[in-house]
Amino acid sequence: MKKYTTIYDLDNIPETIQEAIQLKENPFSTQLLGRNKTLVMLFFNASLRTRLSTEKAAKNLGMDVMILNVNDAWNLEFEEGSVMNLNSSEHIKEAAQVISQYGDIIAIRAFPTLEDKEKDTSEWILNSFVKYATVPIVNMESATMHPLQALADAITITELQTKQKSKVVLSWAPHPKALPQAVANSFVGMMQELDVDFSIAHPKGYELNPELTLDIPIHYNQEEALKDADFVYVKNWSSYESYGKVLHEDTNWMLTKEKLKEAKFMHCLPVRRNVVVEDAVLDSENSVVIQQSYNRVYSAQIVLKKILENL
Ligand code: CP
Question: Ligand 1 atom closest to Cα of 140?
Answer without folding.
Answer: 3
